[in-house]
């Protein structure tokens, strides 16, 4: 009898939760970015919980927009993706960050508010998560949470209105900025818990009214299954594959970058560093696309740099095979005051998963590369510092570079897979 009682005491009561996840830009492998909501929701769904994703039917960061041919109820479209119930709300298309985008935001929020009764009846949430770049969705989320007697969590991707002020040069007295500030302050006051992807936000949030006992840091992560051999693809026979094999056979040190070629990626300094190392047996490989790619190619030709090579984007499933060829992996960013709150770039995590020693040219409130000793961090915007960093890593033995890469991978597997992060988030919901 005593044994039976002991066994009963050890039984953990498992409560299935209904989670309403509001994310304007939510995507999936089917539609493209933004991936974090999908991976979190999929992990929770696999744990036995039910997730309803409320998102806008148009987002500038998706590669493909959801079709309206699904099940339509009250001007919304319901779609089931990998066990997750997506509810797409009408929102007009837009370009850039002008009036069109504002109309898109407020059309989505108004559609959510109008659908309160139907959405809550369908989702029956125990937890409501307000998760998007802008903070105005907190008002709708709080309304839902009160109606459903559910827990309210505010998930912070970027600090608005600080981002448009410091990056976009908008005045703090602009009506839209004042609206964002009111929403941010409201979120910190009314949310039961706050989850931030940025690791150094404590003082900022405290200044705007947050009780720091409610703050939890849960960064971006990787999907471990995406790196299993059965889920990856080898590079096809192509100009890229042939070039990498040739450089390896010549004994060249391959310093690689895989990702977007945008202004924020600061790749012009990477190219200038290549010029300094033309006679050192180092080749620079850039794989990807973006608005700055043409300018970077023209700069390379103008400076007559012969050790920089550009290649087109490749599917995500081929990234693990591509990174096998890199001896060093490069990541950088422009100077930005917003980085004082920390960074958590997906590209960095890919490099760490691939066991690559990393050269990081980002100045931020955190330094994951230096902290985990999986590479070195140098001064951003300084071609000489970048070149010197490459030489430092090149002089290490293959065994030392491999050990660096392994430290990075071990850190990711222990701390930043979506299985780990989803469990951390679930604990916040249960508090």
UniProtKB/TrEMBL annotation:
Gene3D superfamilies from the UniProt entry: Glycogen Phosphorylase B
UniProt signal peptide: none
Glycosyltransferase subfamily 4-like N-terminal domain boundaries: 32-221
Listed GO MF terms: glycosyltransferase activity
Domain of life of the native organism: Bacteria
Stored InterPro entries: Glyco_trans_1 (IPR001296), Glyco_trans_4-like_N (IPR028098)
Pfam families associated with the record: Glyco_trans_4_4, Glycos_transf_1
Residues of the Glycosyl transferase family domain: 251-410
UniProt-recorded name of the protein: Glycosyltransferase family 4 protein
Organism: Paralysiella testudinis
The organism's taxonomic lineage, starting at the top: Bacteria, Pseudomonadati, Pseudomonadota, Betaproteobacteria, Neisseriales
């Amino acid at each position: 009898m005593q044994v039976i009682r002991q066994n009963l005491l050890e039984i953990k009561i498992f409560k299935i939760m209904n989670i309403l996840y509001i994310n304007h830009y939510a995507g999936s492998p089917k539609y493209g970015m933004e991936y974090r909501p999908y991976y979190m929701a999929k992990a929770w769904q696999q744990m036995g919980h039910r997730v309803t994703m409320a998102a806008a039917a148009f987002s500038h960061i998706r590669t493909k927009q959801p079709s309206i041919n699904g099940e339509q109820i009250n001007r919304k479209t319901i779609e089931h993706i990998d066990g997750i119930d997506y509810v797409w709300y009408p929102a007009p298309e837009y370009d850039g960050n002008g009036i069109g985008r504002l109309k898109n935001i407020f059309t989505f929020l108004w559609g959510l508010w109008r659908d309160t009764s139907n959405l809550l009846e369908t989702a029956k949430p125990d937890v409501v998560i307000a998760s998007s770049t802008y903070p105005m969705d907190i008002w709708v989320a709080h309304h839902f949470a009160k109606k459903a007697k559910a827990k309210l969590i505010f998930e912070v991707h970027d600090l608005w209105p600080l981002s448009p002020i410091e990056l976009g040069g908008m005045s703090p007295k602009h009506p839209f900025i004042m609206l964002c500030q009111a929403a941010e302050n409201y979120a910190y006051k009314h949310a039961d818990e706050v989850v931030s992807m940025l690791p150094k936000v404590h003082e900022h949030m405290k200044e705007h009214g947050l009780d720091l006992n409610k703050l939890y840091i849960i960064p971006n992560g990787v999907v471990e299954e995406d790196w299993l051999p059965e889920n990856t693809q080898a590079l096809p026979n192509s100009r890229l594959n042939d070039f990498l094999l040739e450089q390896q056979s010549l004994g060249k040190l391959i310093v690689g970058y895989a990702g977007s070629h945008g202004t924020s990626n600061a790749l012009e300094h990477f190219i200038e560093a290549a010029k300094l190392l033309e006679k050192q047996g180092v080749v620079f490989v850039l794989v990807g696309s973006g608005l700055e790619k043409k300018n970077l190619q023209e700069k390379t030709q103008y400076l007559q740099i012969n050790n920089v090579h550009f290649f087109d984007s490749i599917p995500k499933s081929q990234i693990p095979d591509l990174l096998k060829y890199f001896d060093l992996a490069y990541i950088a960013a422009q100077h930005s005051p917003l980085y004082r709150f920390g960074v958590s770039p997906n590209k960095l995590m890919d490099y760490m998963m691939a066991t690559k020693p990393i050269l990081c040219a980002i100045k931020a409130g955190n330094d994951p590369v230096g902290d985990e000793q999986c590479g070195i961090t140098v001064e951003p915007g300084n071609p000489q510092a970048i070149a010197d960093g490459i030489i430092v890593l090149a002089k290490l033995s293959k065994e030392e570079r491999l050990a660096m890469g392994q430290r990075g991978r071990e850190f990711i597997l222990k701390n930043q897979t979506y299985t780990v992060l989803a469990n951390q988030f679930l604990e916040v919901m249960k508090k």
